[in-house]
Amino acid sequence: MFNAIQHFRACLESIRAAIRRYGNAELIVIDNGSTDGSYELLQAYYLPGTKIYQQKESTVAALRNLGARVADGDYLSFIDADCVIDEDYFERAKAILGSLETAAVGSMYDLPPR
What confidence score (pLDDT) does residue 110 get? Predict the structure, then answer.
């Protein structure tokens, strides 16, 4: 995330709901040096067990590579700080990925109104 305070609470809430429903999911959040209070909001609002990192002035690729390095799960999903996911996101992703013989997929998405 980077300076995403206007969307980040909705993003976190949607991920929290999906994790509560799915159960066995890990949340890793990497801040790119936010100056708008996003990082402080994250520290006050995170789920227990959340891995929080701050890596300033990095490319999106470098931030995602860090997330991939510290992840422990079988599946990896990148969710940008201005995105909201459905409660069944992890279940649907696992069903799709578990049925494919591939290492990565992409998808269409729709950002919330500003």
Answer: 66
Spell out the alpha helix ranges (H) of the chain: 5-22, 38-45, 60-70, 89-98
What is the reported pTM? 0.84
The DSSP symbol for 106 reads -
C-alpha–C-alpha distance, residues 68 and 71, integer Å? 5
DSSP string computed for 49-71: T-EEEE-TT--HHHHHHHHHHH-
For residue 52, which of 109, 8, 104, 107 has the smallest C-alpha distance? 8
Structural tokens at position 81: 């700080």
Paired sense of beta strands 28-31 and 51-54, if any: parallel
